[in-house]
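Is adenosine-5'-triphosphate placement plausible here? Inputs below.
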Amino acid sequence: MSDALLEVADAHTYYGESHILEGVSLSVDEGEVVALIGRNGVGKTTTLRTILQLTAPREGSVRFRGEELVGEATNAVARRGIGWIPEERRVFSQLTVAENVRIAAPSGNDAEAALDLAFDTFPALAERPNVKAGSLSGGQQQMLAIARGLVGDNDLLLVDEPSEGLAPQIVADVARALQRVASETTLLLVEQNLPLAMDLADRFYLLDNGRVVTDGEATTGVTDDEEIRRYLSA
Ligand SMILES: Nc1ncnc2c1ncn2[C@@H]1O[C@H](COP(=O)(O)OP(=O)(O)OP(=O)(O)O)[C@@H](O)[C@H]1O
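Reply from A.M.:
I modeled the complex. Tokens:
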């Protein structure tokens, strides 16, 4: 048996009768950053939802530390230490930055230590602890969402399109922050920005039409690979 932290094997996932994932297999080892790339609509978010059991696969398996997640409720999956930073940057807009971070720390953990970690990682948040999350810029909200994932004490963080809709300068800040998060936890990262994905990741999987079409080491060479570029621009 594999000793991967996460192992998805031949997952088939549907929305109603639409067959979206047609046998996705991938693995993530402890400490790795793995990027899931591919153009719009190929099933990247659905793969994350499949892991979280938000949309359970009809066939195939999802194992975390060797244990089957298929059939478990999403909150049980979360309790195993799998965190999710969705594309929509879920933060509590009526709560302050500090409150958002504090409530993301698992109960029993030291909320002030969580704040220290978050503010140390994201100086832009440390400058505005008492600002309502809803009045932050898009980039700051993304950082807050990542900070909440970071203090959640997760062993695996699923991060969906962290750079989407952000200005290039802010993307660089988010990338730096993710790099720091990666030194603390294992990441599975959905990212359409290929240079960013290759910069952050150790390995990548390229999805197309609900299947993994290729995978390998994340290097800058991948960014210039003709075949991969064709898949991404199609
Ligand atoms: N709730 C849903 N009900 C029905 N079809 C859905 C649903 N969510 C997604 N889909 C469809 O499933 C397919 C895969 O979507 P998914 O969001 O996984 O793609 P993606 O690779 O993450 O792309 P994007 O970057 O656009 O989010 C798409 O064709 C999409 O239209």
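Short version: The pocket of adenosine-5'-triphosphate is lined by residues 15, 18, 20, 38, 40-46 (CB under 6 Å).
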